[in-house]
Design a protein that fits this description.
By secondary structure, the chain is an alpha+beta fold. The protein has two helices and three strands. It has a three-stranded antiparallel β-sheet. The protein is elongated, with a radius of gyration of 13 Å.
């Protein structure tokens, strides 16, 4: 059974995360059924320290791969 984009288990979502000084920063998170995955998102955050768009690009590619694995029942 093939899932369509709106039915995919893994998605990339934009979020505002709090900082230590009380401000908020934009971040891209990979979610599984709308729940963020800590380990994957920590890796994306480390890779996108200079540009937030890097996190979006990595997130988009990882979501395609994770949904592929999910469709093959490998996750």
């Amino acid at each position: 059974m093939r899932r369509f984009k709106q039915d995919q288990k893994y998605k990339v979502a934009k979020a505002k995360l709090p900082t230590d000084i009380g401000r908020f920063v934009d971040a891209w998170l990979i979610t599984e059924d709308l729940v963020p995955d800590f380990v994957i998102n920590q890796w994306i955050d480390n890779k996108s320290t200079r540009k937030i768009t890097t996190g979006k690009e990595y997130g988009d590619k990882l979501v395609v791969f994770l949904n592929f694995l999910d469709n093959k029942n490998k996750t």
